[in-house]
Design goal:
By secondary structure, this protein is mostly helical. It folds into three domains: 76 residues, no CATH class; 112 residues; 216 residues, hpI Integrase, Chain A, CATH 1.10.443.10. Helices cover 43% and strands 6% of the residues. A three-stranded antiparallel β-sheet has the order 1-2-3, covered by helices on one side. Strands 6-7-8 form a three-stranded antiparallel β-sheet. A two-stranded antiparallel ribbon has the order 4-5. Strand 4 and strand 5 form a beta hairpin. Helix 5 packs across helix 7, helix 8 runs antiparallel to helix 9 and helix 14 crosses helix 16. The chain is elongated and about 80 Å long.
């Protein structure tokens, strides 16, 4: 089942002999020669043609495509003869037909960027990389980019295959090839794109084909670490030479920053108030200001690591804090940037700032050393664990929002107006975490977790006659 291209909606007619107008790879194109491309002309993809066929058996090109090809030829004739461009010249065509889904996507991306710049917001490279729109577009583009959005139906997303009786469509394809999480993200972006195309008058705002089925979110992760377990992880990491990872985990645990935000910390972001040290930064995901507070424990580990890693080196304010195992980072002029030294029996191993990949790999090694190969909890679960501690300890949702720099309190605009970064509130949440950690550790695990339902309800000392 194919959605119709924009050009397919015009009436078909017989094929005229038009220069450089060819049918190739399932569609009509205006295809310039090499000398023409040297003058700035390039291949212009047009419609699929049809429903009739021409004398050569090709789907009949639409009137609109033929007119476009004639105008392109006129533009080329003017260029090669050195004449003024025709008044109704068709410039090199955009990548997607006007009014198509691809055209709407490009306009939407430009409008999104303009809206950010109008507010004085310039995204960092990390924020650009985390933008879900380009990621979702990799799935949407091959299916719908050159289509008139009004010809796209719900069955393109989800339908029953008549041959097999099994579900098919883009939704099934994404879940099969990647995950439910990926599907949720793609459909979420599509729905947002449809609203923007509706505002552009490309489609009926209320007729989104992806609204005919639920976009059920993936089951959220619920794994948590307990404080004693994190202490063990940090200890095992330090004893095995993963000093940078040990400090990273300690800071991530106390600050409740995500792994990506923790890896972004540098000397420039360090601050000091009347209680102690914290980091001031904008979160990579939301851009919201965060106050990443530390405890005496995490600060002591961080300082011990920095003294070991950077002793004697001249550091820059933007020097990343957390580095992999290996030689101490030192450059020729004494500033951080190059790497030297060795690790492990004289073997030269360069130390580099932690990336997502290297942090996850080293964490997996330390986790295995600490808890065995069956343990699968992740570094990112520490952020959730801190939230659980604070909640058990009686912290308010506003304190949690300040600590985690998210919108958990559902009043982001109001709080940004009156209390953009409340370090006192973040530290109050730290105190609640300490109380919550104590309560969680005091919970006793049952002696047996393999008891039968009867044993769970009645206890293990059940008279034999009741079990007959």
């Amino acid at each position: 089942m194919l959605a119709k291209s924009w050009a397919e909606n015009t009436a078909a007619m017989g094929r005229d002999s038009i220069r450089y107008f060819v049918y190739s790879k399932g569609r009509w194109k205006w295809q310039p020669t090499k000398p023409m491309r040297a003058h700035g002309f390039f291949t212009v993809k047009m419609g699929l043609g049809g429903p009739g066929v021409d004398s050569k058996g090709y789907p009949t090109a639409s009137t609109e495509d033929k007119m476009k090809a004639v105008e392109l030829n006129a533009a080329w004739d003017a260029a090669r003869l050195g004449l003024p461009a025709p008044q109704k010249r068709v410039e090199a065509s955009p990548k997607y037909p006007p009014g198509s889904v691809g055209d709407g996507y490009q306009r939407a991306m430009a409008i999104r960027k303009a809206a950010r710049l109008a507010k004085g917001i310039v995204w960092t490279n990390e924020q650009v990389k985390r933008d879900s729109w380009p990621r979702a577009w990799k799935w949407i583009e091959p299916k719908f980019a050159d289509c008139d959005p009004r010809t796209i139906t719900p069955e393109h997303f989800l339908r029953l295959d008549q041959a097999t009786g099994k579900p098919a469509g883009l939704v099934v394809e994404i879940e099969t090839k990647v995950s439910v999480t990926e599907r949720f993200m793609v459909i979420k972006v599509w729905r947002a794109l449809w609203k923007k195309m509706g505002g552009m008058k490309y489609c009926d705002l209320t007729a989104d084909p992806a609204k005919t089925f639920p976009n059920t979110p993936p089951k959220p992760r619920d794994q948590v670490w307990y404080r004693k377990e994190v202490l063990k992880l940090v200890q095992v990491a330090w004893r095995n030479g993963y000093y940078g990872l040990a400090a990273l985990m300690a800071v991530a645990w106390d600050s409740q920053l995500s792994p990506i935000d923790t890896r972004s910390l540098n000397f420039e972001k360090a601050r000091l108030d009347n209680v102690g040290v914290y980091f001031a930064l904008d979160r990579a995901k939301t851009g919201r200001a965060a106050a990443a507070t530390l405890s005496a424990w995490s600060l002591a580990i961080l300082r011990a690591y920095l003294a070991k890693q950077f002793s004697g080196a001249k550091l820059l304010d933007k020097t990343p804090l957390f580095w992999t195992r290996g030689g101490r980072p030192v450059s020729r002029n004494g500033e951080t940037g190059q790497w030297g030294g060795d690790h492990g029996g004289g073997r030269h191993v360069p130390s580099r700032p932690y990336t997502k990949s290297s942090a996850n790999q080293d964490f997996a090694e330390v986790r295995k050393l600490a808890f065995g190969p069956s343990e699968m909890r992740q570094l990112q679960d520490m952020r959730r664990s801190g939230a659980v501690e604070g909640d058990v300890g009686g912290a308010t949702v506003e304190d949690q929002s300040n600590k985690m720099a998210n919108t958990v309190d559902r009043n982001e605009k109001l709080r940004e107006t009156y209390n953009p970064v409340n370090v006192v509130s973040a530290r109050r949440f730290d105190q609640a975490r300490i109380i919550g950690a104590k309560l969680l550790e005091e919970q006793k695990v049952a002696k047996s977790i393999s008891a039968t339902p009867q044993e769970i309800l009645l206890g293990t000392d059940i008279p034999a006659k009741l079990l007959k």
